[in-house]
Amino acid sequence: MSLVTTDSNGNTPLSPEEIQGLIPSLSTKQELNEWEWENILSAREWATATRMTIPELVSDSYVRKLHFRMFDQTWKWAGQYRKSEKNIGIPCQQIRESLAVLCGDVLFWIEKQIYPPDEIAVRFHYRLVAIHPFPNGNGRHARLMADLLLSNLGHTPLTWGAKDLIKRGEARTQYLDALREADAGKMQPLLEFARS
Fold first, then answer.
1. Is 5 a member of any domain?
2. Given Cys at both, which of 39, 66, 75, 121 links 146, Cβ 3.0 to 4.6 Å?
C-alpha cells in the first residue's frame, strides 16, 4: 500500500508538499504507521513526565509543542498549523483564533465545573478534531491531549475503545461514527466510546 492513499476512512489526505515533509525513507502506509507509533510513544513518555499547570497544558503553545514531540521524527511540519484546506476542519486562517476560544472554554468548564472531568476531556478532544489544526495526526494528538488533561486533573485517562484506532476495523468505525454523532450535537456516543 502506497503512502499516498485515496482511503477516505476518516484519514486526512496530505498535499504533495506535505508528503514531501516526510523525514524517514518509507514506502508503505504500514511502515509510516509503525514509525509514527514509535515517535508517539516517545512523546507520551515525555508528556507524562512533564509537570505543568492546567493553563499551561490548555494553551496554543502546548498544543503545538505536543504535536511536534509526537511527530518530530516523522514530519518536517510537526507542530506547525496546516496551511491547506482539508476534507475536515475549519478554514486554516481560523485555526489560531478557534484554538484560543477552545482553550478559554476548557479552562472555564474546569473552573466552573460545567461538566464532569471525563466529559470536559472528551469535549476538548472533539473540538480539537473539529478544528483539525495540523496536516495529519489530529485524532491521535487530540486523544493524547484529552488524556493528559484528565491526568493533570487527577483522573484516569480514557480507554478510547481499548483498540488500535489507526487500522480499519470495528473500533475505528465506532470512533468515526461517534465523531459524526457529535457533529450532529449528540455527545453521548463519543462519551460512551471514550470510556469503553
1. no
2. 121
